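Exercise: predict the fold of this chain.
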Amino acid sequence: MGRLGILVNSDRHGQHVLGLAQAARSLGHEVSIFFMDAGTRLLRDANFVQLAEVEGVRLSLCQHSAAHHEVETEGLPPSIVRGSQLNNAMMQHAADRVVVL
């Protein structure tokens, strides 16, 4: 199947992020989600943190953005990669399609 990348740079479309990830997984696609800018605020919501436990879903975030938006990352599961824009670039390169929300 395919690989879907979701770049989340806003906290305004959380339900769409969850819905896209769930729909893509139900069709057998791999999903990678990168949180940056205000999108890192969504990681305060347990629904997004739980996505890291779904088989076939990978989460990463821009640590600089999280610090700027005062999002605490120490309590997040270790499966959520705390990284940089390099992680975003790697997701973009590996994905067949990328959606930006």
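Check your answer against the key: Strands lie at 3-8, 30-35, 57-62, 81-83, 97-100.
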